[in-house]
Specification:
alpha/beta; Purple Acid Phosphatase, chain A, domain 2; 8 helices; 11 strands; 18% strand; single chain
Length: 244
């Protein structure tokens, strides 16, 4: 059973289109027309065109592309800010706010035409953001699923809490978890394909695969194909095996 996956996008529409092109090239080589493309979340923040990323994904789904788009912690922070600028995401340390430079929410608002979003008083910035961000974009982000299971693979933004049934996982864990998930070396019920924790190159750890390759910080956006227990990264020359 074949699935494709794309790591954390963070507002880089150009990289997203390039990843889609690599997947199309692979489809042509193997004769695939139906495998889903799973986007692992963090569509927004830090990069230059979060609005364009959301619009591109919405349009593709509306046109019939078999694209699954998962929710990331940055996507939830964005909608939380729009709902209440004083609210704090439960996964975010209290020293940070959505418009803190380390989070990159200001770049997302700029992509919607809210100038100097991180450098002005909060109240007018929020009011302008609510006016400029289309209701359809907010509804799209709010309605994104937290995970997607297909065959032997589970796709999720951050990971899962080991030993907890999928239906009992909390959204905050699925969007934010690190240490308990990363430190678990025993098999999970599935091969977990995730992002959230930026690394220099995609890594296969045996029980999980991390494909967040620092697009938010100037790195590439990784696309992979998963076929049963096999994982391949996609590049201009085709597939490269990603081995544990």
């Amino acid at each position: 059973m074949r699935s494709y996956a794309i790591g954390d996008i963070h507002g880089h529409l150009d990289l997203l289109k390039r990843a889609h092109a690599l997947i199309m090239d692979d489809r042509e080589r193997v004769g695939d027309t139906g495998a889903p493309v799973v986007h692992l979340g963090d569509l927004v923040d830090r990069g230059p065109d979060s609005a364009g990323v959301i619009e591109h994904l919405m349009r593709g789904q509306a046109e019939g592309q078999n694209w699954v788009v998962l929710k990331g912690n940055h996507d939830r922070m964005f909608t939380t800010f729009l709902d209440d600028p004083q609210a704090q995401d439960p996964g975010l340390r209290s020293v940070y706010s959505y418009l803190h430079p380390a989070i990159g929410g200001g770049a997302t608002l700029v992509s919607y035409g809210v100038a100097n979003a991180a450098d002005r008083p909060l109240a007018p910035v929020h009011a302008e953001a609510v006016e400029r961000v289309p209701a359809a974009h907010r509804a799209f982000l709010s309605g994104l699923p937290n995970c997607y299971q297909r065959g032997a693979a589970l796709f999720v933004h951050a990971g899962i809490r080991p030993g907890v049934a999928l239906e009992d996982q909390t959204e905050t864990d699925l969007l934010w978890i690190r240490a308990p998930f990363h430190e678990h070396t025993a098999p999970h019920p599935w091969l977990v394909v995730h992002g959230h924790t930026a690394i220099d190159a995609a890594q296969h750890y045996g029980n999980r695969v991390n494909i967040d390759t620092r697009a938010a910080y100037g790195g590439p956006l990784t696309a992979v194909v998963v076929e049963g227990a096999q994982v391949f990264t996609l590049g201009p020359e085709g597939r490269s095996p990603l081995l544990p």
